[in-house]
Amino acid sequence: MSGPGASSSAAARAAADTAFREEWGRIVAALIRRTGDWDLAEECASEAFAQALDSWPRDGTPARPGAWLTTVASHRALDRLRRARRGGELLETIGRDPLGPLHDEEEDRAMGELLEEPDEIEDDRLRLIFTCCHPALALEARVALTLRALAGLTTAEIAHAFLVSESTMTRRLTRAKSKIARAGIPYRVPPAHLLPERTAGVLAVLWLLFNEGYSASAGEQLVRAQLCEEAIRLTRALVTLMPDEPEASGLLALMLLQHSRRHARVDQHGDLVTLEDQDRGRWDAGEIAEGLAVLGAALRHRAAGPYQLQAAIAACHAEAPDPEATDWEQIAALYEVLGTVMDTPVVHLNRAVAVAMAGDADAGLEIVERLDRGGELAQYHLLYATRADLLRRRGDREGARDAYGRALELAGTEPERRFLTRRLAELGTDR
Hints:
71% of the residues lie in helices and 0% in strands. The chain is mostly helical and 431 residues long.
């Protein structure tokens, strides 16, 4: 289809996509606060975005998409509550009679009537994170629930982040919501004396949120910068709330150092560019400087945890003016320490790369083979991509082709698949 109608529809869809990335968490968090019903909040938010896709191509994108969407979602929630006759108390929490048509001049007033609470200063989304991260919930349930409610990740995307099936993740999300309702877990930022017991879960939420943006689990784009920026924004808020928690500062430093490379990680066609091939002149010097400063302040607490250690590894890359100057021995040593406090297969896989790049390719490959035999990364494409790269560097073309082929079968994004296809083509055949 072509012509003005197609152009208008495409623009409206693009505006809706942008609004989803920027507003989903805010809308859902506000509706949860108003209604106390997690499923209702998500359903009404989804219906608001569906209505936007229907009406914006026809009526035009509103001047304030977020206010428009919030108002529609609130109308839907109010209608649902009225139909279900859930009582006056819940009805009063989200408004009075339905608002009139969504004219531009009414949007700010609508947002104010539905959301404004001048005496409550904490961000709704920060409140939502701490609610999801209540210690009564299992750690993975806390993380998964927050990624769903706050960032709007699909169940499939969250399952990929945890390396579990979608059906398993669906059950976890359902159980977590039910437990919040049954236990009456409060929707708030906890008082100061309760903050430490919530910290690990909150940091895990923010890190997984950042990672889904940094390296998307599926789709046409490798980088979803909005998710990274949302994670950074929320981590800044957490550091402000907990200035003496070095791991919160370490996480912020890690995010800044990783995010500084975003413009160089894909080329003009959206294709993946490996770290050693990136144009370091495109790295964000301001974010690197801030990340190094935040990391330095965190390390002065002399209580280095996993996020500070990962930030120190990222700093080794950020401070190297070119790939040849990278201190791989230091990176390998940091990964060895990290493995003692964060004993996960992915950490050991990254250590394998560092060990190989530091000069011991055989030792690096042995770590990869050991991880493969363990089976925990059987569906993780980067295990096979790492093996392929190390074999390619050693000159084992046949082994590299097999490993790249398996990685290609498992890769979730189009940029990664194109990259792996190029690597296979570069190896050619021996016939």
